[in-house]
Amino acid sequence: MSKQTEKIKALVEKRELARLGGGQKTIDKQHERGKYTARERIEMLVDKGSFEEYDMFKLHRCHNFGMEKKQYLGDGVVAGSATIDGRLVYLYAQDFTVNGGSLSETMAQKICKVMDMAMTNGAPVICMNDSGGARIQEGISALAGYGEIFERNILASGVIPQISSILGPCAGGAVYSPALTDFIIMKEQTSYMFLTGPKVVKTVTGEDIDAEHLGGASVHASKSGVTSFTAKTEEEAMELIKQLLSYIPSNNREEAPRVECTDPIDRKEDLLNEIIPDDPNQAYDMYKVIQAVTDNGEFFEVQPKFAKNIITGFARFNGQSVGIVANQPSAYAGVLDTNASRKGARFVRFCDAFNIPIVSLVDVPGFLPGTGQEYNAVILHGAQLLYAYGEATVPKITITLRKSYGGSHIVMGCKQLRSDLNFAWPSAEIAVMGASGAVAVLCGREAKEVKEQGGDVKQFLAEKEEEYSEKFANPYQAAQFGYIDDVIEPRNTRFRICRGLAQLAHKKQDLPAKKHGCMPM
């Protein structure tokens, strides 16, 4: 055997050893927990045979607390590039079989390398988290590694899409990297995210709680809004990533992938002519409207379990990817609150950063009143949504279906926030407030006089409400001032959106020169 052949054989053996991570026993334990290994996850996600790994032979340099005896090729993270549906992506997967996936200085260097490559080449970066946190034996060097990763998350924000999947533990400072990315997917039952674990919580606050209820997938999907999606299995998590990527571009200089449309753009939906109830206080399901107007009724919802009074997600019109923001009358009457405002604002800003047009479907009675909202800064959160719409320079089409009252009318993509096309259904009510509230303010003194004179106050108020409704419970006054571009027949909504997007295909709009704005936080 020649020396060259021996060296090649040694290389093959080293590669096989690196692929074993922490060894077969730790791989078996990972499988017993119902979890895949880092490499299995990557192979599950990317196109077959496309993964190219970097730094497979990297080793940590720590000699504290016996770490020199715990050397594994690759040092706890598998990183590289691949393609998904033919598109270039960069990705890394933490390997829990190697020192519990704990982050070391060299592991951080591997992660930073692929993030830098993703930025240089304008490709999405995907991270798969399954780690016990910072490698305590390395002290400040591990913390410095996190800092390097966070800085790259910040610099990449709005330049390339960043997607995090939480497939195991993610605690302490480690949670900030996913929090800085655009979308988070959490695997149910096996993943959790929190700054301080159950033991620390109990010691400090006396609260007795387990990891699932402190920071599990269901908590962050429905209560905190930290995660964008949850998945019952790791296979489902990978499919969600693929589906998400199909709607978004690879970087902020490109457009989202366009697909062939088999759904006629002039398809009329008679259902929409009947969907608005005669009773203004009766709910209806906004999902039915979305399904009626999008290509083939398809809709990929983002944060479906959080702030259900507002709907955000991706759809297509004539094959073009579009972000949809819609009030949901069947959840708290579609009212805006702190959670709905920040959910909507975050989504609008993502769409604007990555050249994705925004279609808003409006039926909003106002902001939720009460001390709970005021104390939780509904003013600031509402301003975030307003700021996001006003700052966005992508094509914006707003359709008012029914109610659009007061400040909530403004923040939902009104003409004054530079919406390009504003349409309204004949059922639209655009006013400062609803008829009953307005009459109570405008005619309070007169109602009191009617009561003192022994008249029928209810009849008087009903007449005044009817008068107010005739003036304001329709879209025509707004149309008179040019705040509505057209009043449209509901069943033609799909066609008007498709044609509007075609008109706005080459829209160019710039913001005033500045370093950055100071968005209310």
Automatic annotation (TrEMBL):
SUPFAM superfamilies: ClpP/crotonase. InterPro entries: AccD/PCCB (IPR051047), AcCoA_carboxyl_beta (IPR034733), ClpP/crotonase-like_dom_sf (IPR029045), COA_CT_C (IPR011763), COA_CT_N (IPR011762). Residues 264-515 form the CoA carboxyltransferase C-terminal domain. GO terms for biological process: carbon fixation. Residues 1-260 form the CoA carboxyltransferase N-terminal domain. One of its GO terms (cellular component) is acetyl-CoA carboxylase complex. This is Propionyl-CoA carboxylase beta chain. It comes from Prevotella histicola F0411.
